[in-house]
Amino acid sequence: MSKTSVALNRFGLGARADQPIPSDPIAWLTGQFAKYDPRPDVIANAPTSAGVSAELADYFRQQRALRAQGGGRPAATPAAPMAMMGQAPPAPAMPPVPTGQNEAMKQARQFAQRSGRSDYAGAVGARATAALITDTPFIERLVHFWANHFAVSADKLQVIGLSGTLEFEAIRPHVLGKFGDMLTAVERHPAMLLYLDQAVSVGPNSPLGARIAARGNRKVGLNENLAREILELHTLGVRTGYTQADVTEFARAMTGWTVAGIGQGPGARAAGTDGLPGDFVFAAPLHEPGDRTVMGKVYPAGGVEQAQAVLNDVAVAPATATHIATKLARHFAGDTPPPAMVARLQAAFLQSGGDLPTVYRALIASPEAWVDQPVKFKTPWEWTISSLRALNVKTADPQVTVGLLQQLGQPIWKPGQPVGYDDIAASWAGPDAVLRRVEAAERFASRAANIDARALAPKVLPGAVSPATTTALANCESPAQGLALLLVAPEFMRR
Q: pTM of the entire structure?
């Protein structure tokens, strides 16, 4: 496997046959820092948090109106997102439902379907098209890496349409900046605040918490989900010295961090007084008063600044540097991250204060990432994009892309858990998964123009086509058969 092929396929998203093969792979990678556009036209025209949040706000107003008419609580909505994901919702026996609640549930299903067809699918199409046409594929890969690191899952009604906007608005603008800036943008984004239930977290001793407790008929309290995942997944990593008490204290500091206009629960009204729907707001009536002690450091009582100070510290902590370095090394140098490479990336992170381009340059300079043999099995997303780039496809149909990635087992922004999708071969290389790729490759090839796979192979896999694949391509009975075979050849399925 030549260095050129490594640059195109391991660092990039796969070669396009209509683009020149880079003569200097390292210069080609580093040159992308200056060329990257965080907001190309296809992303600029995609759904935004503001637009999606306005739709959500309208929906919740309708739900409240139905509730006022005697429909009971606003409709719970797990069934609609489950149906979108191809799963049959459970159907337990239930007593008769009041008419108003029936209407609320009907509207919830309709809203989820509309949001899935327009906002979610539109964002999926924009992401895929950007990946197909980009001339900075290394940076685009890093965007995808960070989107999976800061994973949300579009299987909550409020998150369906916002899942893509997190990537477009919080990750793309900061992928070449400081890790701490990206971290702050992500944790304040409505998709993250809603997905991990921060918007319903109320300090028990906050002004609002105390008023509700005084009534004696309703309990409110702390939600630790976001605080826990920030420490465990986004920054320090699992078992790195923090305790459950630290999680609880951080969660107390974060009370009041919420979303305007589209939150639910007792704090929604307090959060909705300022800002447009979807805006990050600090709602002081929800904030737990007092100093907080997190990992031995005291953070004085304050407003939004208290939790932000914790974020600022964990963003540059040595454990965070190790966690990020390990994940980057795994992504670019194999399922078992090379210790020397991890140490090199960690040092770059710490010495630069989390400057991501400095870390990326250390990544490019790491010999472990340039070994000849393929070190990673492509995920369904990576394989799809590299296949379509090889075939010079430049536009992704939103609904087709949604269906294809669902079929291949990696629906976009739907990992089902905050940890994101796995980044190891064992999760993607099973016989059934490979068979689905073969079927998809045959469809791709049948729709492609009359492309000679024998001529295409050295363009997309320069210096990396094995004798066995060369022979197999030469013996194919048709161009379509040759293309399909190339797309599922061992050297194409790996990077």
A: 0.92
